[in-house]
Specification:
Helix content is 2%, strand content 36%. The chain has 421 residues and is mostly beta strands. The protein has 2 domains: 252 residues, Pectate Lyase C-like (3 Solenoid), CATH 2.160.20; 90 residues, Immunoglobulin-like (Sandwich), CATH 2.60.40.10. The strands form 5 sheets. It has a 19-stranded parallel sheet that branches. Strand 1, helix 1 and strand 2 form a beta-alpha-beta unit. It is elongated and about 85 Å long. The chain starts with 5 loop residues before the first strand and ends with a strand.
Length: 421
């Protein structure tokens, strides 16, 4: 925490002048003392017409009203990161919270920090370009703690489309990395590159999905490349293979990956599993997230050890912890069609078997999976789709054909995270 020696307030979204963010940074750099807080009360979009002043040898926290209320956008004036320090190893503290940073285009896209320690909380880092490395954030010989933050659609040709961390320690929890991209054919890590460091990377309840890399040589990880010590638990890796690479990555258990990379062999690990995620969207809280859909194997599959008390949206994690940044609030499954019908042996039932799934919390259900289960012996049925995808209507259906044994029986419908059926 940064205790201010001087406090500044940003009251408008102007590029410059009294009450602007630019003016607050000018005054903070010039102020006596080393720790300052800049509070941004203005909402809307700050369109930068040129680079903001670098943060020079001061500790400063810059606090916005919320990532859904304030955007800081590089509008014109060349290529530059939105917030940056000089390439000097100052041992200062930097904090950024409650804002969306977009369209940055420096050597690192949105934030470029050398030395010191940084906190990043409840931010959205989106659509930035790292012309060298670190499409979202670039770190050199630094320490960063990231919570409740989304990195989406950032890109770089070389290293770390979301974060490039050289000689740095990273602690990340309750955060989402989605759609970040390595554009160069010799690049590394579509989300996080951690290298040249004895300092650790630690992940808890993080979701990686849809990050990509144009370069897949030598087993380089698309989501995560740990060439320095790294560990993770309760984390989802989903998308282009291989998701995890580098010799420093170690599972602490209860992770889920869409492929088999990364030696996910600890208790509770779920390699080669489809997490059943929704599209990235505004699903509560001030930052965008991927929901866990009905039937997701990540639901209730995490460990409370090291898990935050709330999810990225500040929703309480109750009962068994879910894997990833999003905690499902559950679903209800209800029988809709096909009940109490008859068919002669070895013939199809006239009506499909249907089940409807709803979320009382208005969380998405489309694309989830309902599993229909018929008895394994005796009178039973053959199902056309034992695992049926939930349609936009919230309903999943399968057809059934009676087997060769006469008698009554029940076909159950269920989905992970759902009650009823």
């Amino acid at each position: 925490m940064i205790v201010p020696s001087t406090a500044f307030t940003v009251t408008n979204t102007n590029d410059s002048g009294a009450g602007s963010l630019r003016q607050a940074l000018i005054e903070a750099n010039a102020a006596v003392g080393g720790a300052h807080v800049i509070s941004i009360s203005a909402t809307g979009t700050i369109n930068l017409l040129s680079a903001l002043p670098q943060i020079v040898n001061i500790s400063v926290a810059i606090n916005g009203p919320g990532a859904d209320s304030l955007t800081i956008n590089r509008s014109s004036g060349g290529n530059y990161a939105i917030f940056a320090t000089p390439g000097i190893l100052y041992t200062r503290a930097y904090g950024f919270s409650g804002m969306r940073l977009q369209n940055g285009a420096g050597g690192s896209g949105a934030i470029a920090i050398t030395g010191g320690s940084t906190t990043l909380n409840a931010c959205v880092i989106a659509n930035n370009l790292g012309t060298f490395a670190g499409g979202g954030v670039g770190l050199v010989s630094s320490t960063i703690t990231i919570t409740n933050t989304t990195f989406s659609n950032n890109r770089t040709p070389l290293q770390g489309a979301a974060i490039n961390a050289q000689g740095s320690a990273l602690t990340i929890s309750n955060s989402t990395f989605s759609g970040n991209q390595i554009t160069g054919t010799s690049g590394i890590a579509g989300a996080i590159q951690h290298f040249a460091s004895s300092q650790p990377l630690t992940l808890a309840n993080v979701t990686f999905s849809g990050n990509t890399s144009a370069s897949l040589g030598a087993g380089r990880g698309v989501a995560l490349e740990c060439d320095s010590p790294g560990s993770f638990r309760n984390t989802i890796f989903n998308g282009q293979s291989p998701q995890i690479g580098g010799g420093g990555c170690n599972s602490l258990g209860n992770n889920l990956s869409s492929d088999g990379a990364g030696n996910l062999n600890q208790a509770g690990d779920l390699p080669n599993s489809n997490p059943l995620l929704s599209a990235l969207g505004d699903l509560g809280g001030s930052t965008s997230t991927h929901a866990l859909l009905p039937g997701s194997p990540a639901i209730d599959a995490g460990t409370s050890t090291g898990a935050p008390a709330t999810d990225q949206r500040d929703i309480a994690r109750v009962g068994a912890v879910d894997i990833g940044a999003f905690e499902s609030r559950g679903f209800t499954i209800t029988r809709t069609t096909g009940n109490a019908q008859t068919a002669t042996i070895n013939t199809a039932f006239a009506s499909p078997l249907g089940a409807s799934v709803v979320s009382a919390a208005s969380e998405p259900v489309q694309g989830g999976v309902v599993r229909f289960t018929a008895p394994g012996s005796g009178a039973s049925a053959t199902l056309s789709s034992p695992s049926a995808t939930i349609a936009a209507s919230g309903e999943a259906n399968t057809t059934a054909t009676a087997n060769g044994s006469a008698g009554s029986y029940t076909v159950n419908a269920n989905a992970a995270g759902a009650t009823g059926g």
